[in-house]
Write a structure and sequence with these properties.
The chain has about 90 residues and is of the alpha+beta class. The chain contains three helices and three strands. The two termini are about 25 Å apart.
C-alpha cells in the first residue's frame, strides 16, 4: 500500500496534498494530535519503518512533531485519515 513512488501521477498528487496542507492547513491541538497517534498506533493499515509510523494508504508519516505529518493538520476532503471504513479520527471525535 502507500504511494507508488515510481508513478509520476501518484507522486504529483501526494506532493500537491502535502503542499496544500502546508499552505492552508490548520494545526490540531497537542491533545488531539496525541489521540490521533494513539488511534493510528492500533490501525491495521499503519506500517512501521523502523520506529516511524507510516500510513499504509497514503504513505504519509504519522508522528508527534514535524511539518510532514499526516496527523498534524485538520482533516479536509484532500487530506486526513483515508481509512477504507471512513476516518478513524472523526469516528473517535479527533
Amino acid at each position: 500500500m502507500g504511494i507508488d513512488w515510481t508513478n509520476p501521477k501518484a507522486v504529483m498528487k501526494a506532493t500537491m496534498s502535502f503542499a496544500s496542507a502546508l499552505l492552508t492547513g490548520e494545526d490540531v491541538s497537542k491533545d488531539r494530535l496525541a489521540k490521533r497517534l494513539e488511534i493510528c498506533a492500533t490501525c491495521e493499515l499503519v506500517e512501521m519503518e523502523g520506529e516511524q509510523m507510516v500510513c499504509g494508504i497514503c504513505g504519509c508519516k504519522i508522528k508527534e512533531k514535524g511539518l510532514q505529518n499526516l496527523a498534524r493538520y485538520e482533516e479536509t476532503a484532500g487530506y486526513g485519515c483515508k481509512h477504507p471504513d471512513g476516518s478513524r479520527w472523526k469516528a473517535n471525535g479527533v
